[in-house]
Design a protein that fits this description.
The protein has 23 helices and ten strands. The chain is α/β, with parallel strands linked by helices. The strands form two sheets. Strands 6-7-8-3-9-10 form a six-stranded mixed sheet, sandwiched between helices. Strands 2-1-4-5 form a four-stranded antiparallel sheet, with no helix packed on it. The relative contact order is 0.08. It folds into three domains: about 5-315, ABC transporter transmembrane region fold; about 330-410 and about 495-583, P-loop containing nucleotide triphosphate hydrolases (Rossmann fold, 3-Layer(aba) Sandwich); about 420-490, P-loop containing nucleotide triphosphate hydrolases (Rossmann fold, 3-Layer(aba) Sandwich). The chain is elongated. InterPro entries: AAA+_ATPase (IPR003593), ABC1_TM_dom (IPR011527), ABC1_TM_sf (IPR036640), ABC_transporter-like_ATP-bd (IPR003439), ABC_transporter-like_CS (IPR017871), P-loop_NTPase (IPR027417), Type_1_exporter (IPR039421).
Length: about 575
């Protein structure tokens, strides 16, 4: 149950002074707090015995007021220290989690769905942070305050009465232990269900257009209703188990009060205790209500924190299983060489790249074409280090590609993927993302190269136009050209366009290709595409089929070979001609 606190020991150690001051202030406040009933008891005894006078009244009043003021200040100090620490823990854990996510590649995100990662990064981390704030408060109340009260009751009133009143509370520990384990299990099940709901909601939002197009709104509403009802049942199960703690504590507490009153009355009748002692003792018992009840809350907080910690650690310490141990700093891109290179995804039943032999000289343009699933994107991913290295030779210049530090390689590459990731910001912000110190002039130049000038003119706010989440407010072609502009502004050593021209017309496509050739002379460019017109000007074109290179050469050479490339090119030419005639 306390494993979550043990796992947070490094955090507590880093913030030892903050927590030390807070806990010391809490302990002193507890001591001062339990002195108050003692003063009240003496006050009552003075009234009963007739010893009360003006001087004694002022003395007791000043003592009482002083204790209240000091306790108030101490409570503020420890409260601020504990809860500020909890928020600091949240910040640090979320920052650590985000840094971990940013370092991970595709295999990692195949293990965990987005909604699940969000749930663990928000709700679970919040539950953990509560143990560093409210949990520490409850822990001190359940232990330190209770111990202080018991000692004060024994010393200032009667040890025999104290023992008689406290013994009935001991069996409560067994109930807390058994039900605590059940809370742990039920809470983890509920959190998994919450993650699942998160996943499906995100998918529903992303696929809203498709859902509406197929008139499936009612089906998704019903599915969501069923999921939330299931989540409600699981959360109710947590509440059901948790609810037994309060009544159980109160039952044992009531038994303790009955014993204290009964036995205390006997001691007063015998003259062993005074009326003031009994009043003070009952006040002590009243002060024990919160610490005793807090035992159940402590169990809940620690159990939930432990369950959340396991969930957070699962994603925090899980990796993408990719190890790039290269130490060489890549300062420029050299010739790229594949020799008898073979690669297979872990989940694939067939070889995805089979015996690839390919040389791409620095500064040349390579076209990669082939049927869907032929291995075009898989080949590109080798350059991006998105998956483990395959078998065979993959060199940059005279050294293995894996000898170079991964971050230094990625800094030299500009990548435009098939799925265009745009941010819910302005056109300016999305393009400037590719270059840290980009000026408006740089942005407009990249826009011109990506043939986005006319589109920008039609936007009311120009560069300041917000494009919506994932570019929802612009067309597919506009998304592609903003993505291309973002890559071009980086002016990378290697530019990779992975089927990034599919949503633009043939004329715009040719303009973009010509612009790229003009500004990227001497730099390497790789274009993967289904539209063969996009690679006509490439220095070399390879045709992939089932992960193998089945054709290789320039456009003219492949046309002369009259293989798959020739057939596909002629079909696309005829299709484009018919579309132009139709216009």
């Amino acid at each position: 149950m306390f494993d979550v606190l043990i796992k947070l020991k490094d955090f507590f150690k880093e913030n030892k002074w903050q927590y030390s001051i807070a806990l010391v202030c809490m302990a002193i406040a507890n001591i001062f707090g339990v002195i108050i009933p003692y003063i009240i008891g003496r006050f009552i005894d003075a009234i009963v015995t007739g010893e009360m006078d003006r001087s004694l009244l002022i003395t007791y009043s000043l003592q009482f007021l002083g204790l209240v003021l000091v306790t108030y200040v101490l409570d503020f100090i420890w409260g601020y220290g504990l809860f500020a620490g909890a928020f600091k823990l949240q910040k640090e854990m979320r920052s650590t989690m985000m840094r971990h996510f940013l370092r991970m590649r595709a295999p990692y995100f195949e293990k965990f769905r987005t909604g699940d990662l969000m749930a663990r990064s928000t709700q679970d981390i919040r539950a953990i942070s509560e143990t560093a704030g409210y949990g520490m408060l409850v822990l001190m109340s359940a232990t330190g305050m209770t111990a202080t009260l018991v000692v004060m009751m024994g010393i200032s009133v009667s040890w025999s009465l104290t023992i008689a009143a406290v013994v009935p509370l001991l069996p409560m520990a067994y109930v807390v232990k058994v039900k605590g384990a059940q809370v742990d299990e039920a809470y983890e099940i509920a959190q998994k269900s919450f993650s699942s709901v998160n996943d499906d909601v995100l998918e529903m939002i992303d696929g809203m257009r498709v859902i509406r197009a197929y008139v499936k709104e009612a089906d998704f509403i019903q599915t969501f209703k069923n999921q939330t009802e299931d989540l409600l049942k699981k959360n109710n199960r947590v509440s059901e188990i948790s609810a037994i703690f309060g009544p159980t504590v109160k039952a044992f507490e009531g038994l303790s009060i009955i014993i204290a009153l009964s036995y205390g009355s006997i001691l007063v009748a015998r003259g062993t205790l005074s009326v003031g002692d009994i009043v003070a003792f009952q006040m002590y018992l009243g002060m024990m209500i919160w610490p005793i009840i807090s035992v159940s809350e402590l169990v809940l907080i620690l159990r939930q924190g432990s369950a959340s910690m396991r969930r957070v650690e699962e994603v925090r310490y899980s990796t993408d299983d990719l190890e790039f141990k290269g130490e060489e700093e890549a300062k420029a891109i050299d010739d790229l060489l594949f020799n008898e290179f073979t690669f297979k995804y872990t989940s694939s039943e067939t070889t995805n790249l089979d015996n690839i032999d390919l040389t791409l000289p620095k500064g040349k343009m390579l076209g990669i074409v082939g049927k869907t699933g032929a291995g075009k994107t898989t080949l590109i991913r080798q350059l991006l280090n998105q998956f483990p290295q395959g078998v065979g030779t993959f060199n940059m210049g005279s050294r293995a590609y894996s000898d170079y530090r991964d971050p230094s390689l990625r800094r030299l590459i500009g990548y435009v993927p098939q799925d265009h990731v745009l941010f819910s910001r302005s056109v300016r912000d999305n393009i400037a993302f590719g270059k840290k110190d980009a000026t408006d002039e740089d942005i407009l130049t990249s826009i011109r190269l990506a043939s986005f000038e006319d589109d920008l003119k039609n936007m009311e706010k120009g560069l300041d136009t917000l494009i919506g989440e994932k570019g929802v407010s612009i067309s597919g072609g506009q998304k592609q050209r903003i993505s291309i502009a973002r890559a071009l502004i980086k002016n990378p050593e290697v530019l990779i366009l992975d089927d990034s021209l599919s949503a633009v017309d043939a004329k715009t496509e040719q303009n973009i290709i010509k612009n790229i050739q003009h500004v990227r002379e001497g730099k390497t460019t790789i274009i993967s595409t289904h539209r063969l017109s996009a690679v006509k000007e490439a220095d070399e074109i390879i045709v992939l089929d089932s992960g193998r290179i089945v054709e290789k050469g320039t456009h003219d050479e492949l046309i002369q070979n009259q293989g798959w490339y020739y057939e596909q090119f002629m079909k696309q030419e005829i299709k484009d001609s018919l579309e132009e005639e139709g216009e």
